[in-house]
Design goal:
With about 270 residues, the protein is an alpha/beta fold. Helix content is about 30%, strand content about 30%. It is built from eight helices and eleven strands. It has helices spanning about 50-60, 70-80, 95-105, 115-125, 160-165, 180-190, 225-230, 240-245, and strands spanning about 15, 20, 25-30, 35, 85-90, 110-115, 130-135, 145-150, 165-175, 205-220, 250-265. The strands form two sheets. Strands 4-7-6-5-8-9-11-10 form an eight-stranded mixed sheet, with helices on both faces. The longest helix has 13 residues, at about 70-80.
């Protein structure tokens, strides 16, 4: 898969330890193996995306296998549909899901995240892919060149996803269901407000092929309790009282509830 220059849109060619385009724009490949294609104009903060602490917590949690059922569902669904590559994972984080999916399908993988800390972790841990720091709003890949695009607990941008997907490609979306992690929520919030949530949204330019519910229970202990919090947006909503209640929790049994939606471009 060819990367595109985020400044001029021309194809990037790899030259030893850097990528460069015919217009002379150059991007160094970091020691860990990733390339930063996020321009200053595309940043909305000094260090956008997940922090180093968030990424480390998610990696520690996921590497213990608590969410293996999600990986298994992704692999089974992709194999049943005979998904082909190349594969692009938008919002790849530390690469846990997409590295395993790509390996199982034997597909070339491009993992992309706006967080430099996330792609640094991914590049250091998984050598079976190209890891890029870039914005999902302007994916640095050619139009209609992607066979399988995934966004797993991450952003959905239908217009841009439609641009890069091949006509026979698939888009895999995982969304948290309304009852996801109710055990955690019951500890950190005095009251849980259930809002109506569309778990199978209509996406312009796409048709929904299938939806696969994923639901399983797990138990975390010790540091795993805080790691679970750091994986979620509740980290930014938790009150002081909620944080104290969670700090006093040494064992937590909870239920993960999410849905895998599979779309095709039309």
């Amino acid at each position: 898969m060819n990367l595109l220059c985020p400044l001029c849109g021309e194809m990037l060619c790899r030259r030893e330890n850097r990528y460069e385009c015919e217009n002379g724009h150059s991007f160094d490949i970091a020691r860990q193996g990733y390339v930063n294609l996020l321009t200053v104009q595309q940043k909305h903060s000094l260090n956008p995306g997940d922090t180093k602490e968030q990424v480390a917590a998610r990696r520690a949690f996921l590497n213990q296998g608590f969410y293996q059922s999600i990986v298994d569902t992704l692999i089974d669904t992709a194999k049943a549909l005979s998904c082909r590559g190349p594969m692009v994972d938008v919002g790849c984080g530390e690469g846990y899901y997409s590295s395993r999916l790509a390996a199982a399908l034997e597909l070339p993988l491009l993992g992309l995240d706006i967080s430099k800390d996330a792609v640094r972790y991914a590049a250091g841990a998984y050598k079976n892919a190209t890891w890029v720091c870039a914005t999902a709003a302007k994916l640095p890949v050619e139009s209609h060149s992607v066979g399988l695009l995934t966004s797993l607990f991450a952003v959905t941008l239908p217009e841009e996803f439609h641009r890069v997907l091949a006509s026979d490609g698939y888009y895999f979306q995982i969304l948290a269901a309304q009852d996801h992690l109710m055990g955690l929520k019951s500890i950190i919030y005095p009251e849980i407000l259930l809002r109506q949530k569309d778990s199978t949204p209509e996406l312009p330019g796409f048709t929904l092929v299938k939806s696969v519910p994923i639901r399983f229970s797990f138990t975390v202990e010790g540091d795993g309790v805080q790691q679970l919090l750091y994986m979620t947006p509740h980290l930014f909503r938790i009150t002081k009282a909620g944080a104290e209640a969670l700090a006093a929790t040494h064992t937590l049994t909870d239920t993960a509830s999410c849905i895998l939606n599979v779309y095709k471009p039309v």
